[in-house]
Each structure stands twice: as structure tokens, then as C-alpha cells.
Amino acid sequence: RNCRGNPNCLVGIGEHIWLGEIDENTFHNIDDPNFERRKKNAFVGLTNLGATCYVNTFLQMWFLNLELRQALYLCPVARPEYVTAEKKDYEPQTICEHLQYLFALLQNSKRRYIDPSGFVKALGLDTGQQQDAQEFSKLFMSLLEDTLSSQKNPDVCDIVQKQFCGEYAYVTVCNQCGRESKLISKFYELELNIQGHKQLSDCITEFLKEEKLEGDNRYFCESCQSKQNATRRIRLLSLPGTLNLQLMRFVFDRQTGHKKKLNAYIEFSELLDLGPFMEDR
């Protein structure tokens, strides 16, 4: 019987009932502050918000680019008046400020991981839907380059081009007269087909291989003033400070009518020599 008249008796509040309902194993699931603390010299992680692992991958890659990180730290805060009597906490307002804030936390946080929700929300990304990583990289680099172009500091305004932009040329040679035409274009990544390959160098070789323009795909030669058989290839003219190689792991499956992922391993050495692939200028 409960001793309801005795305030010093724990049985009086039904201790045996609520203690019996507690699984002692649940105590081990309580967050330990020491577990959340980053170990010395360890990297800071990023929380996956559902299907945002592709965003986190690029954020970590961009953070580890010291030149890009230092340039972003030099960007002035767009609206320093965000601090008011009612609102004292810092909230990033622009894409550059969101990157500054995340990079500062990745560099200095004492926690094992941080939450990139503000950055993802600012971009309007759906956290529950997996997006194409290559497309995200292209669109965000374009947005960042456009945003930084208004900066007066030369170390900031063209950092995206310095670090990620290279040049290649589409070179077409007429088989009839030998006339060579060249179309120079900028690139921020090289999209490499991996199907049937095991070495990264083989993927690059295929990307740069010569293509025959014949039949319905013949080339209109300005010199001959008619369509002629020709060859076309890509020649690398200059490389960026950071070369972005995108491995095309998704291909169209004609049998199913859907995309399928290629899980093949691609080997590469620590030192990638692209000298043999470059055109002498």
C-alpha cells in the first residue's frame, strides 16, 4: 500500500509503477557532451539533413580549398546592421556570408559536426530529394562567381575563375582541304565517361579522343564551302588551380528506360600528370 500520508515515502507517489516502466538501456542513448566534442586535430563533420550528402561533399571540398576559403573570409558583410537590441545573434544574409559562417565553424568549432540548414535553406534546396551532384556544382559555382564579381578586391572577385576555370579548344580538321578551325571554350569540370574503364587516365584519354564526322554528321567546311568528312577532338589549353573531374556514374539503360548507376572502381595515382594531354601554345 502507498503511504499517502507520509511525504517522505517515495512509495506514496507510485515509485514502483514509473520505475518499472523505464528501460535502463535507454540511459545509454542520452547524449554525452563529451561525445559531441571534437577530438584534437579531427575534422568537423556536417549533418545530413535527409538527402543532402551531395551538398555536404562539395562544402567539405570547397572548405579544404585554402585559396577559396581565404578569399571568402575577405568578403565584407553586406549588412552589418543586422545586430539590434532585439536580435543579437548573427544570421548570414547572403550566399557568401553563409559560406563564411560554415567555413568558420568547420575550422574552429569544438563540436564533432555542425548543421548546414541555413545554407541549404538559403539555396531553396529540398532536403528530402536527392539532386544531381554535377548539376548542383555547376549552378552553385555560377552563382558564386556572379556574386563575387561585384567585389572590388581582385583577390576575391575572380577567385572562382582562378581556382576552377580552365580552357580547352574544340579543333575540327577538314579531311578534304586540311583546314583547321578552333573554338575555344572555358570549363569548370571535365565530365568523364567511366564505362569500360578501370584507370582515370583511360577516362581522360577517351574524353580527348578524336571523333570522326561522317555521313549525316559531316562538317561544313568554310574553305570548301560544302559538307566534308572531318575529325574533331578536344585539346586542353590551360588547367585551373583545382581541377574538377566528374565521373559520370549514371548512364541510360535502354532495357528499363531508366538511369542506372555504375559502381565500377576507378584507379588513379596520387600524382596526375596531364602534361601529355596539354597542347603546346
From TrEMBL:
One of its GO terms (cellular component) is cytosol. It is an enzyme of class 3 (hydrolase). One of its GO terms (biological process) is protein deubiquitination. GO terms for molecular function: cysteine-type deubiquitinase activity. SUPFAM superfamilies: Cysteine proteinases. It comes from the Eukaryota. Residues 44-281 form the USP domain. InterPro entries: Papain-like_cys_pep_sf (IPR038765), Pep_USP48 (IPR033841), Peptidase_C19 (IPR050164), Peptidase_C19_UCH (IPR001394), USP (IPR028889). Its EC number is 3.4.19.12. Keywords: Cytoplasm, Hydrolase, Nucleus, Protease, Repeat, Thiol protease, Ubl conjugation pathway. It is found in: Cytoplasm; Nucleus. It catalyses: Thiol-dependent hydrolysis of ester, thioester, amide, peptide and isopeptide bonds formed by the C-terminal Gly of ubiquitin (a 76-residue protein attached to proteins as an intracellular targeting signal). It holds the Pfam family UCH. Its main location: cytoplasm. Belongs to the peptidase C19 family. This is Ubiquitin carboxyl-terminal hydrolase 48.
